[in-house]
Amino acid sequence: MALSQETRRPSSVLSACQRALSVAGCALLLLLVATCQVDKITTNPPPVATLSVAPTQLTFGAAVGSAALQSDSVVLKNDGEGGALSWSAASAHGSAWLAFTPRGGSTPGWLHVQLNPAGLAPGTYNDSVIVSAGNAAGSPAAVPVAFVVHPCVAAVIALDAQLNDSLTQQSCAAPHRAGSFAQLYSFTGRVGDSVSIVMSAPALDGYIVLDTATTSDAPPLAQNDQCGAGPGACLLYQLLRTAGPYTIEATSGPAAATGLFTLSVTRPRPPAGPDALAQLTSDGVVIDPGGSVNQPSVVLRGTVSDPDVGDTLRLQVEALPVGTAFTGAPTAVSDRVSSGQRASVTLTGLADNTAYHWRARTLDQTQRAGAWVPFGGNAETAADFSTAIPGPPLAPTALGQFQNDGVTAIPVGGSGRSRSAVFKGTVTDPNPSDVVRLEVEVQPLGTAFTGVPNGSGAAVANGTIATATVAGLTDNVSYHWQARAVDQTGRAGPWASFGGNAETAADFKVAMAGSQLVFTVPPTNTAAGAAITPAVQVAVQDALGNTVTSFSGTVTVTLAANPGGGTLAGHPTVTAVNGVATFADLSIDRVSTGYMLQATGAGLTTASVPFDVTPGAATQLAFTVQPTNTAAGAPITPAVQVTARDASGNTATQFTGNITVALGANQGGATLGGVPTHAAVAGVASFPGLSLNKTGSGYTLTATTGGIPGVATSAQFNVIAAAAGQLALTTPPSATAQSGAPFAQQPAVQVQDANGNPVATQGVSVTASIATGPAGASLASHPGVDHLSFTGSPATGAWVAAEAAKRHCPVTLVGVDRVHWPG
């Protein structure tokens, strides 16, 4: 009969039974339970073993056609109670590619799993290893096994490169060579290009296949296992007829061969230099070397050719003014033509009255370039052609920069006070009837000019002052600028730089005037003595709320509202960076609510939002109600109080720990009475009922608590005697005495309070009598010793007399008239 590990009450069993069975069935079940001796079922079931396997699943991968076995291991152990578990293993589906050893054993142990990719097509294969360990929890355990056989993947390689690789049993199957291993590579080809592929393998009979895919669905583009008279395999000058990816299959002639190899993939030769170079006007008139044109454009032409048949070619031309050295960067490029045909380019935007020289080269469709060929057969210091064009405007003169009012000049290197500036210059054009406008290009210092204007103004008469405005300038940025004149036809004159300074020097800087101070990071509630976090930040802003990043002056913060009488610590004055002052270490030492900061800088003032300073963590104890002078045994009043304080001396109201007081200086050897330990309430512990039982001067109390190092010590206080409460015989009389003669050791009596402390009295008589002794004895007085004197009040004396009378007992002394008891 199977039962749970938890014993069920009969009532719950019956209830469950009634819900699940008929009355007869329930009766039968109860009979069975009784037969199984339910009374012997305990709440302590036998130890339960737990089968644990790790990892709980296995995943392998292999290339299709590879022959290398894949392996891993599974750890088997008992994670429950009891000792070793006996186990056995089996395959869920009996897959032929899955093997494992051993088939059984005991824990702890290892199950070694092997997967064989031989003969498997690409895809994912799944099976499970089932591990059984009897009735152990977690048994049987299934370990899913996934075997991913992936297709051959081609590695991307660069042309004109060489690489070293190898064929191994882990390599994939060669798509075009049955029974052989292969490494696949891919590259992107251009239409009409050609490549040469060489596989060098001294110890391996290599074989090269070129195709457009990694599969063998169709015959490859080319294949070869030889390379002329030398070793290895190669495909030379293979023409690529389409653009796109190509695949190289590096494999072996013999099946299943392995070994190292070197593979190189190179492109063919560059094109030849152009010939039959010529220069023409835009309408096709030949310009002789050194000739002149009256238009801002010319046509340059040449015949291009390439040793690789099928290449398409372009003509590249570099044309520069005479005296300017060639840089190798073409200034114009033609359309594509076939090898052996003419190509031409049109140069536009030529400068007037300028002599040019030029050269050309050929570029094929793979961007391989031939050698530069100069035009004209003349020295490069001589003009190949020159221009004489109706002139554009001249460079502007008398350039000036102004504030946005257009009147206030900004000196070279000076500062603009807004985000816009006005630029002026005198514009002149060779054509007297032209009207001319001023264009300016303003760039941040360090940014090179692009030749693209970003400011312009209205056209004015030739020879007058033109104006251009540029807006959107950035605060705290230095600028340089240049200007040019443009006529009504759009012809632009040369750029003229302002200032007569280097372009690495600022012509002007935008430094806007701030109009407000703003707490961009206001103070937040913080603990006393702790730095306000996040750090307070104050920014100088313009009227639109933009930070004036050019401001680098100082900002000072002070306490605008100081309800707690605190002190502002830290560095209250800092230098702004990009218009923002950051106060990283401000703190206030006194607890209160409603503090406010005031910031001052750039001639501006502002106040922060209110914030609170709360107590810090308790770091010290202090006696805030000191012990006062008191009588022995009497409570110290008012009650002593000890306060937990933070490092700044504020009451740590959050502290609620226990505080214990004890005697510090204890010259009188007193004992501290009362309850010495009390829990703090809002940081304050009160100690009512404390008392000391011995008189003395200079007593002190100490206070301690867990978690706060150190000991607090109170001020000194004194304990005086209480009211008289008893007589004490401090010196007994002699043990033996002669009748009628004074005792050798006279007795001494002391008036004390209830704690045994002497009570000073005066003018009080004490009568001594015999307490016990022979009948008829009496004490006799002697001259000068017939009474006792005490210093004290009359009330003390009366009390002493009364106490003495209580102890008066008649005695009989044989042969003695009187006994005197000295005081």
Report on the architecture of this protein.
By secondary structure, the protein is mainly beta. The protein contains three helices and 64 strands. Strands 21, 23, 24, 25, 27, 28 and 29 form a seven-stranded mixed beta sheet that branches. Helix 1 runs antiparallel to helix 2. The longest helix has 13 residues. The protein is flat and about 170 Å long. The N terminus and C terminus are likely disordered.
Topology, pairings included?
Blueprint: H1 10-20, H2 23-35, E1 51-54, E2 58-63, E3 70-78, E4 86-91, E5 98-101, E6 104-106, E7 109-115, E8 123-132, E9 141-150, E10 155-156, E11 161-167, E12 172-173, E13 181-189, E14 194-200, E15 206-211, E16 222-224, E17 233-239, E18 244-252, E19 259-266, E20 275-280, E21 291-293, E22 298-303, E23 312-321, E24 332-333, E25 337-338, E26 342-347, E27 355-364, E28 373-374, E29 385-387, E30 397-402, E31 414-416, E32 421-426, E33 435-444, E34 455-456, E35 460-461, E36 465-470, E37 478-487, E38 496-497, E39 508-510, E40 516-521, E41 526-527, E42 536-541, E43 554-561, E44 568-569, E45 573-575, E46 580-583, E47 587-588, E48 592-601, E49 604-607, E50 611-614, E51 620-625, E52 630-631, E53 640-645, E54 658-663, E55 672-673, E56 677-679, E57 684-687, E58 691-692, E59 696-699, E60 701-705, E61 708-713, E62 717-720, E63 724-731, E64 748-753, H3 794-806
Parallel strand pairs: 2-9, 10-13, 21-29, 31-39, 41-50, 52-62
Antiparallel strand pairs: 1-3, 3-7, 4-6, 4-8, 5-7, 8-9, 11-19, 12-13, 13-18, 14-17, 14-19, 15-16, 15-18, 20-22, 22-26, 23-24, 23-25, 23-27, 27-28, 27-29, 30-32, 32-36, 33-34, 33-35, 33-37, 37-38, 37-39, 40-42, 42-46, 43-45, 43-48, 44-47, 48-49, 48-50, 51-53, 53-57, 54-56, 54-60, 55-58, 59-62, ...
